[in-house]
Design a protein that fits this description.
With about 425 residues, the protein is of the alpha/beta class. It is built from 13 helices and 15 strands. The protein is rod-shaped and about 140 Å long.
């Protein structure tokens, strides 16, 4: 634990020395003390920040109480613990003064010494626990809250004020105020229903709602209820929980969903047969053209080897696709392996595949591409098959026709000329 920073307010600078020794003897770690005399504190309380404020105004209990009130106003409701040291516990009662709100009143007479030390240590432990919570919330982007169900009272941590864009000097003190000031109008009914269900639900389910910051901007906040405290009659008294701003996370998720939807649309509407396979060549997915290219019944074309998917004439025999003697020369497996080894796409592999169509072997001319898909520990490859059989047949027919024409021209005994439309 770091050395605590303590403000000591006393009747005079010289009068603070006994209390400095008293505090040093009562605390496990030597404190760092800042001193202020009582008159100065009454004029202008020190702003801090401190871990603990101690007002030692023995014999001047009324002025001490006033100084405590001023310190609390200056430090705010979420400021450090404030302790008023008095001669006797009944000093304020004798003067007809009630203990200041949010101030611990402790006696310092001889018998109360151990009590004083224990109380100060407890207050400092609570202060450091609050500080650790604040730092943890800030690091994780979290806030914590407590709801008094019976009184409709809320208490927020500093993390909550940060998430909701508010300041602790203007606290949100009730659930109804929270709904009105922070929750988007369209989400208020859902948030209210969640709060009402906290009494009966076996588990408090998290939910996400939109909030409106003071500047009018919208954020999305994840809220999770935690511990529930009940009265002796079983009725719900307190609910605690946490909240986290997940706006950026949700926006990233939605952007990813849009990108995935776009990729799925491109994949499914592509005019070529496309399949994804694992490194062994097992089919993981196919688009519509791939399903037509396969001719396997729907539901039977996933999980099979690529050779079985395209109905390769070698696949049904011997050990199967990837294990037969012809497989090392397979253009598909060659493109697949080269893309995995290089980590780059392999494109434009022209090949003739001998497939089974209608129970008969049919040569099919294709252009194959293989593109690796990074997928963490489970790499995948996108295989594309462009059936160019008809185009190649037309190209060969055109080439043959041009060759015949050339021969006719070269062997003709009479002159032959060609004319355009204009003669």
């Amino acid at each position: 634990m770091r050395a605590p920073l303590i403000l000591l307010v006393s009747g005079s600078p010289d009068g603070s020395l006994p209390f400095q020794r008293l505090l040093a003897s009562r605390l496990p770690a030597p404190p760092i003390l800042a001193t202020q005399d009582l008159d100065e504190c009454l004029r202008s309380p020190s702003p801090g920040p401190f871990d603990l404020c101690v007002v030692a105004a023995l014999g001047e209990a009324a002025l001490g109480a006033q100084a405590c009130r001023l310190l609390r106003e200056r430090q705010g409701s979420l400021g450090p613990p404030i302790v008023l040291l008095v001669e006797e516990a009944a000093d304020l009662e004798t003067l007809g003064i009630g203990p200041p709100e949010g101030v611990e009143v402790l006696p310092v007479h001889e018998e109360g010494g151990p009590l004083l030390g224990s109380a100060l240590r407890s207050l400092l432990r609570a202060r450091f626990a609050e500080e650790a919570l604040r730092r943890g919330e800030q690091a994780a982007g979290l806030g914590s809250w407590t709801l008094n169900v019976r009184k409709d009272q809320m208490e927020w941590s500093q993390g909550m004020y940060r998430i909701f864009g508010r300041v602790s000097d203007d606290p949100v003190t009730s659930f109804s105020q929270f709904l009105e000031l922070s929750v988007h109008p369209d989400d208020r009914a859902e948030a209210a229903l969640r709060a009402e269900a906290a009494d009966d639900s076996e588990e408090l389910e998290p939910f996400v709602c939109r909030i409106v910051l003071p500047d009018g901007s919208l954020r999305r906040v994840w809220i999770q209820g935690g511990e529930r405290v009940r009265e002796q009659d079983g009725s719900l008294r307190f609910v605690t929980g946490i909240a986290q701003d997940i706006t950026e996370q949700r926006e990233a998720e939605e952007q990813l969903l849009r990108q995935n939807a776009l990729l799925a649309a491109i994949f499914d509407s592509a005019p070529y047969a496309m399949i994804t396979v694992d490194p062994s060549g097992r089919v993981l997915s196919t688009n519509q053209m791939g399903a037509l290219f396969s001719e396997l019944p729907a539901g039977q074309n996933i999980g099979v080897m690529c050779g079985d998917f395209i109905r390769c004439r070698h696949a049904p025999f011997g050990p199967g696709c990837g294990q037969n003697p012809e497989c090392p020369d397979c253009p598909i497996r060659g493109a697949l392996n080269r893309s995995l080894e290089s980590g780059r796409p392999v494109q434009g592999v022209e090949a003739t595949l001998h497939l089974v169509r209608g129970g008969q072997p049919v040569p099919l001319e294709v252009v194959i591409s293989a593109s690796p898909i990074p997928a963490g520990p489970d790499p995948r490859v996108l295989l594309t098959f462009a059936d160019v059989t008809e185009r190649r047949r037309a190209e060969r027919a055109l080439a043959a026709s041009e060759e015949r024409y050339r021969r006719i021209v070269e062997t003709a005994h009479e002159g032959i000329i060609t004319l355009d439309a204009g003669g």
